Fold this sequence. Notes:
Elements: H1 2-22, H2 25-47, H3 79-114, H4 118-131, H5 135-146, H6 150-176, H7 180-188, H8 191-203, H9 205-227, H10 239-244
Helix pairs in contact: 2-3, 3-6, 3-8, 3-9, 4-6, 5-6, 6-8, 6-9
Amino acid sequence: MVKTNQLDQQRSNFYYLLHFIRHSPSAIIGFSIVGLMLFLAIFGPYIAPYGPETAMPSDAMQGPSLKHFFGTDTIGMDIFSRVISAPRLDLVIAVCAQSLALFVGAPLGIITGYYKGWHIEFLMRCFDFVQAFPVFILALALVSISGQSIFNVIFVIAAINIPVYARLVRSETLTVKTHEYINAARITNSDISIIFRHLIPNSLTSALVQTSANIGASILLTAGLSFIGVGVRMPQAEWGLMISR
């Protein structure tokens, strides 16, 4: 009976979502943009007429034509092929960075919310220190120190976002741990059991919602770093690098 009610609720939510999308032009536009990005990220390199990293010096600096829809760059790479192939790299960097940040930040948020002590306060002040800097300036400094590579860009973006997830999860944990069922669970369960069985499932909602917004911000940050020459390197296809060139 419970399972049937859950299925009915899921169907109701699904139909409500479809109704909302059909009657909301902004939602249709938003889903179309996201769908296009995902389509290009998956199929872009396969439908590109040329290899995104293939240089053709004899065709360098050509204007738009039937052979090269968007023209070519200074070393003869087809700009259209690079434009539709770039979302894969940008999306991979953003998703990997946010997944790593969530994987590290969520446990830190639960620990700092569930326990007390001077070490917890010290960790929170470290988060304050990181978040006190402008995001782009901090990312620029860290990438410059660690070196220019895709992996370093991922780790830097992840490190900058760890305090964001930690604070969100900590806020949820501080609320959840005051509930009566948590107090009852302390009688017969260890702290580890309480964390895994009660706090983690009930404290990640805000962080998971924030992830979608942070993925978009990560794409912009990656493009900005590549634009000024410290992010993705040539000849890889990345929008910020292409704008810079």
